C-alpha cells in the first residue's frame, strides 16, 4: 500500500464535569490523503504557515515512522476540513490521529492501537480528544505516572441529541487555560468527582434527569465563560428550545447542547439575529473514530 485516505471525527471534550478526561466523537470530519514519496515532505491544500515540518499531521506521521524505523517521506493532501479550527472541536486531534493512523497503516500496521494512541497522546499533550477521535463514541481517559494513556470506550444512547452551537470567533486553548485557578476548593473538587463518576453511565442510558445533574461543573466553565461573547443569551435560548444540558465544548468557543429531541432548527431561528454569528448544528455520534475511506 502506497496511498491511504483517512477520515477523523470532531470531538467535544470535558462534557461538563469530565474536565480533561472525557470526550465524545461527533459526525463532523476532516479528511486527509497520505502517499509515500521517494524523498521529503509535500503538503497540498495547506495554509502556507502550516506547510512545513511543524505540521501536526506530519509530526504524527513522522513519530510513528521513527518508532518503527522507516522513512517518513510523504505527500499529505488535505481533502476536506469540516472541523473548524480553535472552536473546541478537536481540530488538532484530527491532524495528529490522521498522521499516526496513516503511517501505521501504510507500513503494515506494526503498532497496536494502544501504541498509536500513546503516540497521539504524547503529541497532543492529553488524551481527552485523541481517544474519541481514534476510537469513536464516548471515551474516558487517564494517564499513569509515566505518561502512558489508558481509555475506556462506552456506547452512547440514541435517546440523546447533540447540538453544537458554533460562533464566528475563536478561543485559543492557552487563553482558556490561563484563566483557570491554580487551586480549587475541596467542595468543588468533590462536586465534580461525584458527577464524573456517573457521566459514562448517564451517556450510556440516556437518562435525561441524570444527564442534567452529571454535566454540571465547578472546575472550569465558570472561569472560562467571560471569554465567550453573549454566551448567556445563547444558553438562555438553548434551554428555551429544549436543551437539558448546555456546556462549553473543550476550551471553546463552541458550546454543546444535549436534548431529548431535535432542536437545531428551532435554536437557529432564535439566535439568527444575535451577534457573533452563532450557528446551531445537530450532530450524530461518530461510532468508529479514525478510519480509512475510499
Topology (elements, then pairings):
Layout: E1 3-13, E2 22-36, E3 41-44, H1 56-68, E4 74-81, H2 91-106, H3 113-124, H4 130-135, E5 138-143, E6 149-154, E7 161-166, H5 173-178, H6 186-205, H7 208-214, H8 221-224, H9 231-240, E8 243-248, E9 255-259, H10 264-271, E10 279-283, E11 291-293
Parallel strand pairs: 3-4
Antiparallel strand pairs: 1-2, 1-11, 2-4, 2-5, 5-6, 7-9, 7-10, 8-9
Helix pairs in contact: 1-2, 1-3, 2-3, 6-7
Q: What is the rounded distance between the termini?
A: 13 Å
- Low-pLDDT ranges: none
Give the tally of structural domains.
2
For the residues shown, what is the average pLDDT?
Answer: 95
So what's the CATH class of the largest domain?
Answer: Alpha Beta
Notes on the structure:
With 294 residues, the chain is α+β, with helices and mostly antiparallel strands. It folds into 2 domains: 3-155 and 287-293, 2-Layer Sandwich (Ribosomal Protein S5, domain 2); 161-283, Alpha-Beta Plaits, CATH 3.30.70. The chain is built from 10 helices and 11 strands. Strands 1, 2, 3, 4, 5, 6 and 11 form a 7-stranded mixed β-sheet that branches. A 4-stranded antiparallel β-sheet has the order 8-9-7-10, with helices on both faces. Helix 1 (56-68) packs parallel to helix 2. The radius of gyration is 19 Å and the shape is globular.
Amino acid at each position: 500500500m502506497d496511498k491511504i485516505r483517512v477520515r477523523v471525527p470532531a470531538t467535544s471534550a470535558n462534557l461538563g464535569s469530565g474536565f480533561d478526561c472525557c470526550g465524545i466523537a461527533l459526525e463532523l470530519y476532516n479528511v486527509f490523503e497520505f502517499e509515500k514519496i521517494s524523498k521529503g515532505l509535500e503538503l497540498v491544500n495547506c495554509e502556507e504557515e502550516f506547510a512545513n515540518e511543524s505540521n501536526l499531521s506530519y509530526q504524527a506521521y513522522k513519530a510513528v515512522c521513527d518508532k518503527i524505523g522507516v522513512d517518513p517521506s510523504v505527500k499529505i493532501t488535505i481533502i476536506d476540513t469540516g472541523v473548524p479550527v480553535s472552536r473546541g472541536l478537536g481540530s488538532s486531534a484530527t491532524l495528529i490521529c490522521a498522521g499516526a493512523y496513516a503511517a501505521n497503516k501504510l507500513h503494515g500496521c506494526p503498532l497496536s492501537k494502544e501504541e498509536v494512541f500513546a503516540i497521539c497522546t504524547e503529541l497532543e499533550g492529553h488524551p481527552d480528544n485523541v481517544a474519541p477521535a481514534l476510537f469513536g463514541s464516548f471515551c474516558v481517559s487517564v494517564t499513569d505516572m509515566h505518561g502512558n494513556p489508558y481509555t475506556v470506550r462506552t456506547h452512547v444512547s440514541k435517546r440523546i441529541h447533540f447540538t453544537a452551537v458554533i460562533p464566528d470567533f475563536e478561543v485559543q486553548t492557552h487563553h482558556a487555560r490561563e484563566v483557570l485557578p491554580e487551586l480549587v476548593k475541596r467542595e468543588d473538587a468533590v462536586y465534580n468527582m461525584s458527577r464524573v463518576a456517573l457521566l459514562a453511565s448517564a451517556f450510556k442510558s440516556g437518562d435525561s434527569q441524570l444527564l442534567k445533574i452529571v454535566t454540571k461543573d465547578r472546575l472550569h466553565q465558570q472561569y472560562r465563560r467571560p471569554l465567550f461573547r453573549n454566551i448567556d443569551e445563547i444558553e438562555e435560548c438553548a434551554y428555551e428550545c429544549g436543551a437539558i444540558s448546555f456546556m462549553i465544548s473543550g476550551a471553546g468557543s463552541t458550546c454543546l447542547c444535549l436534548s431529548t429531541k431535535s432542536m437545531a432548527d428551532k435554536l437557529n431561528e432564535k439566535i439568527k439575529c444575535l451577534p457573533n454569528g452563532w450557528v446551531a448544528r445537530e450532530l450524530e455520534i461518530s461510532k468508529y473514530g479514525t478510519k480509512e475511506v475510499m
